[in-house]
Amino acid sequence: MPPDAALSWRRDALVEAIPAGWRKPLARIALAWLALAVVAAADWATMAGKWWNVSTYNHVLFVPLIVGWLAWVRRRQVGALVPRAWWPGLAALAGALFLWLLGRLAGVNSASQLGAVLALQAAVPALLGPRVAAALLFPLAYMLFLVPFGDELVPALQMITADIVIWLTRVSGVPAHIEGVFIDTPVGLFEVAEACSGVQFLVAMLALGVLIAQTCFRGWGRRIAFLAFALSLPILANGVRAWGTIYIAQFQGIEFAEGFDHIFYGWIFFALVVAVLLGVTWRWFDRDPEDPGVDVERLQRSRLLDRLGRATMPAGAALAAVLALAGGFALWAGLAARVEAEVPARLALPEVPGWERVDYAPQVPWMPRATGAAHRRIARYRSEAGEEVDLFYALYAAQDDARDASAYGEGALVPDTPWRWVEPGRSMPQAAGAVLLAHGNLRRVAETTWRSGDLTTGSAARLKLEAMASRLLLRRQPTATLILSVEGRPADESAAAIDRFVAAMGGRDAWMDRAAGLR
Predict the structure, then answer these.
(1) Which range is least confidently modeled, 145-149, 368-372, 383-387, 466-470?
(2) What's the whole-model pTM score?
(3) What's the start-to-end Cα distance of the chain, in Å?
(4) Where does the sequence pass through the membrane (predicted)?
(5) Which of 5, 8, 326, 468 could form a disulfide with 102 if both were Cys (CB 3.0 to 4.6 A apart)?
(6) Does residue 256 contact residue 177 with C-beta atoms inside 8 Å?
(7) How far is 277 from 205, CA to CA, in rounded Å?
(8) What is the DSSP letter of 153?
């Protein structure tokens, strides 16, 4: 048989394997997914980069394969249903695209990426109907694990791990003192760093645990119990691992302990945790993983699905509406991305009564990051009483993915510098505090404030919401970051000095507006 004839035969055989009533619906859903992927191409590229390059998210590379397998084992049950376009699904699609738009405009990757995934999910009921979506409910829901998440959990996991480690260290007879995420022992100072938080294995275990809970258990009671065990196990195991490193260092030295930890702490560690999880729980598995868990007869008899299924529409019109929504939101995003506020060509820091500018000469270099800001200024002020406060100010023409004032790595704590996060500082509506430490002995207390329009806040979430609203409504307003910091003083003295400085400024908001030329 000639090669062209063989290829044609295979293509025809593949088409023949698809039920006649499903060929056009599958073509429509494929076209819709392609259009939605093109609209959110930047987000999909960012997600793929994280899956491949960031170890925390390497497990996500398996999620598309898992979703495909979950859909494949349901193919006969889904094939027995009749696909029908469903107009309420278009409302869900519009909501997903709106979330994507908000994330794009505010530079919130997690929101735009979630919206991109939700758009693919929403296209299924819109073009195939609620019964098909119900039959594919778990594979569709599992697609949410395509969104890289977990960085937000790092500070909390660091503190939890530090608490576990200090307790085990003292129980094992090693004298130790803890300050935030730093643990001081007779052989040296140890830090529960971000890489030691265990977030890498927690998010991977969540994806694995949800898959096992659904495919290996029938009842919700067992599923919930299994998932609770699956999530608590890596947290506890990570604490034991970190304690083991410190304990070994007491007798074999820090270099030996670090070498052992680097070898052990990887997917070998995760494999051992998974082995313990399955070894403890496998005896309660009561479902075959190949069981699709889809009762077609029940779906056909469902009165709820009957009522929902009445809201049908022509398939061609539904596809046209999907493409129109994708194009409309892409246009909206393009127009909003061009909105920028006017900022002064030059920026001078306003004077602070009772405080004079002195040379900025920190004991350890400290320069907050403000990527994409139109202006950045840093200065040191000294009061008549000799108190010193460092001030960092940055002004942005807009907030987006490349200019996100509250993004990870922006602001007071810059990665790959001598400074380390120790613990949260005081928090108030207008500022968020953090305690930093350099070389294990030099403390810096920093308080961050953001100003956008009439909003003055220390909440990154509120800043992002304001940025979303501004870009969405095509408002041109700048965003400013103010970081007040004291080096080398205890936390209470630092806070008192900052309070006196703020009072002399006339308030954070008024001073920031004067610096931006708005007053």
Answers:
(1) 466-470
(2) 0.77
(3) 82
(4) 26-45, 57-73, 85-103, 123-147, 224-244, 264-285, 311-335
(5) 468
(6) no
(7) 10
(8) G
